[in-house]
Amino acid sequence: MLRYTYIDTPIGSILIAGDSSSIIETYFAGAKPKPDWIRDDEAFPEAATQLRAYFAGKLQAFDLPLAPGGTEFQQAVWSALQRIPYGETTTYSTIAERIGRPAAVRAVGAANGANSSRDRSERIADRFRRRARCEAATSRAGGAGGRADAVLNHRSA
Questions:
Q1: Which run of H or E residues covers position 154?
Q2: 49-75, pLDDT tens digit by residue?
Q3: CA 119 to chain centre
Q4: Pairing verdict, β 23-27 and 12-18
Q5: Which tens digit of pLDDT belongs to each residue from 74-98?
Q6: 59 with 50: CB under 8 angstroms?
Q7: What residue spans of 30-71 are helical by DSSP H?
Q8: pTM above 0.85, yes or no
Q9: What SS3 string covers 98-138?
Q10: Is the CB of residue 3 less than 8 Å from the CB of residue 19?
Q11: Per-residue pLDDT for 145 more than 70?
Q12: Comparing 155 with 75, which gets the higher pLDDT?
C-alpha cells in the first residue's frame, strides 16, 4: 500500500506517493491519489525540503530515494534526460540521437510523457525540470508555455 502527501510549490501542489523506502510516483497540480493509497501528511519530508529549496533557487540536483520503473527504451530516454545540464533545453530529436535511435523521435516523446506527471519517479527535480525542457523541445523552435515555463523560469521571492 502506498502512502501519499501533497507538497505546495510555486507551480501548485505536487502529489508524491511511495512506500516506506522510496518515492514511486509524482504528479503535478490537480492530481488525485489512487483509491487504495493512504494519505500521510508526514510522509516524504526530505522531498518537501528539497522541492522548496529548488524553487527558492538554492538547489539544482535532488538526492532522494526513488524507485524508477519502465522499459529498457524508457530507461535509456530517462537516463539521457538526466544528462541535460541544469538550465538548458534540448529537443526530442537530440535525445533520440544520443540514445542511438535517431528515428525514434516520437517514441522519445512518449517515453518522456511516461516519465512526466504520472510515472514512477527517477530523480524528482531532474524530472520536473527536464520534463519542462522537453515540453519546450517538442519542436526545434522551443517555447514551453504554462507549467513548463514556471518550472524552468522559477524565481526566488
A1: none
A2: 999 998 898 988 888 887 766 789 998
A3: 9
A4: antiparallel
A5: 989 988 887 888 888 889 999 999 9
A6: yes
A7: 45-55
A8: no
A9: HCCCCCCHHHHHHHHHHCCCCCECCCHHHHHHHHHHHHHCC
A10: yes
A11: no
A12: 75
**Residue 48 has which C-alpha cell?**
518537501
- Domains recognised in the chain with CATH numbers: 3-55 (3.30.160), 72-152 (1.10.10)
Per-residue burial over 41-74, b = 16 or more CB atoms within 10 Å of its CB, e = otherwise: eebbeebbebbeebbeeeeeebebebebebeebb
Please check the confidence at residue 40 and state whether its pLDDT lies above 60: yes
Query: What are the helix and strand counts (H, E) for the chain?
Result: 6, 4
C-alpha span between 13 and 126 (Å, rounded): 17
Cα gap 94→100, rounded to integer Å: 10
Residue 7 has pLDDT above 80, yes or no: yes
Helix (H) or strand (E) holding 12: strand 12-18
> Is the CB of residue 151 less than 8 Å from the CB of residue 129?
yes
Task: Quote the cell numbers at residue 138.
Answer: 517538442
